[in-house]
Write a structure and sequence with these properties.
mainly alpha; rod-shaped; 2 domains; 77 residues
Length: 77
């Protein structure tokens, strides 16, 4: 009887730990991506140049603002 109770407590503890770890990692990753976006302004500039466009600073700023707005909308959902 005691052994069964010990195993049950162990299994419940592992499940609670997995769920808590998942939400902690998810929250941590969201905050990291908000602070460090995966595409920088320099990467955007080189991508536009490879497509044959001459990027102006105004256009780069607009695209970065659009990306930031989209990421904020995605976080609200």
């Amino acid at each position: 009887m005691n052994l069964g109770l010990g195993i049950l407590v162990l299994v419940v503890g592992v499940i609670i730990g997995l769920v808590a770890g998942f939400f902690l990692a998810r929250n941590s990753m969201k905050s990291y991506l908000a602070k460090n976006p995966p595409i920088s302004e320099e990467m955007m500039k080189s991508m536009m140049m490879s497509m044959g466009q001459k990027p102006s600073q105004k256009k780069l700023n607009q695209m970065m603002a659009q990306m930031k707005q989209q990421s904020e909308q995605a976080q609200k959902k």
